[in-house]
Amino acid sequence: MTLAFRHLITAQNGDTEIDGTGLRVYTVLGLYETGDSPEYIADEYDVPLAAVYEALAHAADHPDEMEQIRKADEEAEERIISRLPEKLQQQARRTKQADEAQRLKAIKRAKEARLGASVP
Q1: Residue 90 lies in a domain
Q2: Cα(101)–Cα(8) distance, integer angstroms
Q3: 45-48, long-range: CB within 8 Å, 24+ apart, which pairs?
Q4: pLDDT at residue 117 above 90?
Q5: Is 9 left (phi over 0), alpha (psi -120 to 50) or beta?
Q6: Which residue has the higher pLDDT, 4 or 63?
């Protein structure tokens, strides 16, 4: 059964986003994964709470789409970094690596908090 979403559209670039906002489902997923509540996301981005829940439902139902977007974003970031002078490339890659480690820790903490138990 296919769900019909009231608040989601497919943007011209192919990403699914909340209609009229430019806020990608992928972004909503990332915010939620790192610990933001649906209510906080709705307030922060001035979107209906139902739109946030629709975005999370879409993300859960389309993991391949979310992974494609992650890879495309990562490739775009790498293209930008590769245009920098060598010293700045090294610094940018170290920063990127540290940011990713922090993101993964935040995801783990958020999962633990939502489950009320440790996540291996």
Answers
A1: yes
A2: 31
A3: 45/18, 45/21, 47/7, 47/18, 47/21, 47/23, 48/7
A4: no
A5: beta
A6: 63
pTM of the model: 0.85
Domains identified in the chain, total number = 1
Digit-coded pLDDT (tens) for 53-73: 999 999 999 999 999 999 999
Amino acid at residue number 72: A
Is residue 119 in some structural domain? no
